[in-house]
Amino acid sequence: MDEALQQLIFKAIDQTITEDEFEQLQSAIENHDDVRDQYLAAVSLSQALSEIANAPEALESTTAVSGLAFSKHVQANGRSTRSAFSIKVLLAIACLLLVSLSGYWFGKSTVVPATNPIAAAQDTTEESLLAGHATLRRSVDLQWSKGAQTYRDGEILPNGRLQFEAGVMEIDFFCGATLIVEGPAILDVKSDWLVAVEQGRLRANVPPAARGFIVKAAGSDIIDLGTEFALSVDSINAQLEVIDGEIKIQGGKFDGNHLTTGQTQRLMGSESQQSTEQLSTLAELQVRRQDAEAARFSQWQALSERLSHDERLVAYFPIARSQLNRFVPNETSAGTAFDGKLVGPVGVEHGRFGPESTGLTFNRPGSRVRTLIDGDFTALTFACWVRIDSLEHTYNALFMSDGYETGELHWQIRNDGRVMFSVMVDDTQSRKHFSKVEQRIVETAGLARVYYSDPIWDVSKSGQWIHLAVSYDPANRIVVQYANGERMGAEEIKDQFYIDTLRIGPAEIGNWGQPFRKTPSFAVRNLNGSIDEMAIFGAPLSADEIKSLYEQGRPLGY
After folding, report:
1. In this predicted model, what pLDDT tens digit does every residue of 37-85 receive, in sequence order?
2. Residue 379: how many CB atoms within 10 A of its CB?
3. Which of 240, 345, 451, 539 has the most beta carbons within 10 angstroms of its beta carbon?
């Protein structure tokens, strides 16, 4: 490949190619495999470096088409010049091409396409690691002690102290042992085989796979030999009872004692110590949990019905309390006109309030909820409850306008755990890029701006319910994003990206993507998880209002 074609590739990547030059490059790509291979390699590297550089503070402006972004620097007078980033991209591409071409000129019959830098990075990425020994499986009426580290249901418990004043929690240790602990309680998780108890009443269920599990209390180690046992501990007294099986006591004045089914041992104190009777069983805790979830759900239903009368609401889908058939009812004054239609293999399962409530899962690529929301808006706020199982795609949809025309928006989550809210500012600005699907350069339209939150998700939060919200407020020139009622990012709307007329139109919940131009292919962005409430306001909600939505809607254990 000669130097002139290399220069055309550089110009195409840097968006400075003329129409005549574009036609020349297009012809070369269509007719010569080596040119096409080099162009694909250059585009791949440019995209990889763009993603690395695309932190919000690094972008002076961003032109985006459904998540594919190129960066350029815009001077105060409006003229575009090559940024330092563009120069770095060109230098990197030049190096790549020189390396590849050296093989070509030294006798290779074809140029081997360069390795995709993103794929290469994935191949060498180390496994994700988490620190912890157990999971807080569920809780009822939990009141954490002042200043204590708090955890939500489903979270991993690392080494350290657990202290709560009231309520009950169920802890699953990774070895297989389960503890039901009633407050007030103080525990110290040492490992997945060892926990120290300073205070509290607990029932331990230890299956054969967890034999050898140890509970330290009152100067002794209570070693499981295949048992279910109960323990009551305070500052003065400690009593142990074997419900089923056998345990061994090691250390203290009862060192070496064995206890079997029905036997008790006072480890410390007098006959006035707390009884181990009436400790909750697993079945009893499950019933208590279901009753508490039902009460919490009933409370939220009343709040949700009041919310549906908020005049600022554009559309409201309270999925958790809806009777679903093939439609998700909209509960604003717009009525059925904005209803959502279930399309494809959308799953219906328990929502964030347990069996009483409903959630929609989008785990399969074809699943989606389609809606049509007409109108022009001067501001928008989106809020939803979402459970993320994994972020397996580069972009994972929450709510997306079908197209990406001027004023339309996309709300989605990147695979790095950051929420993306993007708005198309001007769809008349043509951009060209090489389509890997169509194997040619295609023309796409649009100047858009992508606003990112701080990371709101990692693998430790898999399966947990999260409240997400974003307020797009052109009048005050700001976009604010929230997770669980807390601000997770705010960014100024700059003059270049200012737009005061917003639209939604045909849109999807939990997915996005129509087949591409002349192929049956579509982008895979279905959310691997569940949504059980989606609200869209035609006004910017305040931080206090977002916090209130979270507090009123949060499930048990949050």
Report:
1. 777 777 667 666 655 555 444 433 333 333 333 333 333 333 333 444 4
2. 18
3. 240
The tens digit of pLDDT for each residue in 446-466 reads 788 899 999 999 999 999 999
User: What burial class does residue 253 get, using C-beta atoms within 10 Å of its C-beta: 0-12 exposed, 13-18 middle, 19+ buried?
Assistant: exposed
CA 272, CA 479: separation in Å to the nearest integer?
61
pLDDT score, position 71: 33
Looking at the chain, how many residues does it have? 558
CA 511 to chain centroid, in Å, comes to 14
Assess contact for 513 and 388: CB atoms under 8 A.
no
**Residue 455 φ then ψ, to 5°:** -60, 130
Structure tokens at 132: 């912890």
Q: Which residues of 410-449 are buried (b: 16+ CB within 10 A; e: fewer)?
A: bbbbbeebbbbbbbbbbbeeebebbbeeeeebbebbbbbb
Q: What is d(CA 394, CA 419) in angstroms, rounded to the nearest whole number?
A: 12
For 501-558, the DSSP string reads: -B--EEEEES---PPPTTSS-------EEEEEEEEEESSPPPHHHHHHHHHHH--TT-
Give the Cα separation of 425 and 406 in Å (integer): 5
What's the pLDDT score for residue 429? Answer: 79
Of 465, 470, 427, nearest to 451 by C-alpha is 470
pLDDT at 19: 66
In angstroms, the CA 50 to CA 43 distance is 10
Q: ∠149-134-228 over CA atoms, to 5°?
A: 115
Q: Cα angle at 200 between 197 and 204, to 5 degrees?
A: 70
What pLDDT is attached to residue 336?
A: 85
Half-sphere exposure at residue 205, Cβ-oriented, CA atoms within 13 angstroms:
11
Tokens for 141, please give them: 């009426």
One-letter amino acid for residue 317 of the chain: F
Distance CA 37, CA 112 (A): 7
C-alpha to C-alpha distances, 388 to 77, 461, 528, nearest whole angstrom: 44, 8, 6
Instruction: Assess contact for 110 and 99: CB atoms under 8 A.
Output: no
Output the pTM of the full model. Answer: 0.72
Of the candidates 432, 429, 435, 428, which has an alpha carbon nearest to the alpha carbon of residue 8? 432
As a whole number of angstroms, the distance between CA 386 and CA 317 comes to 13
Where helices occur in 106-179 by DSSP H, the ranges are 117-124
CA-nearest of 337, 283, 295 to 315 is 337
Residue spans of the chain under pLDDT 50: 55-124, 272-273, 433, 437
Burial tier of 323 (Cβ tally within 10 Å: 0-12, 13-18, 19+): exposed
For residue 11, how many other CB atoms are within 10 A of its CB? 16
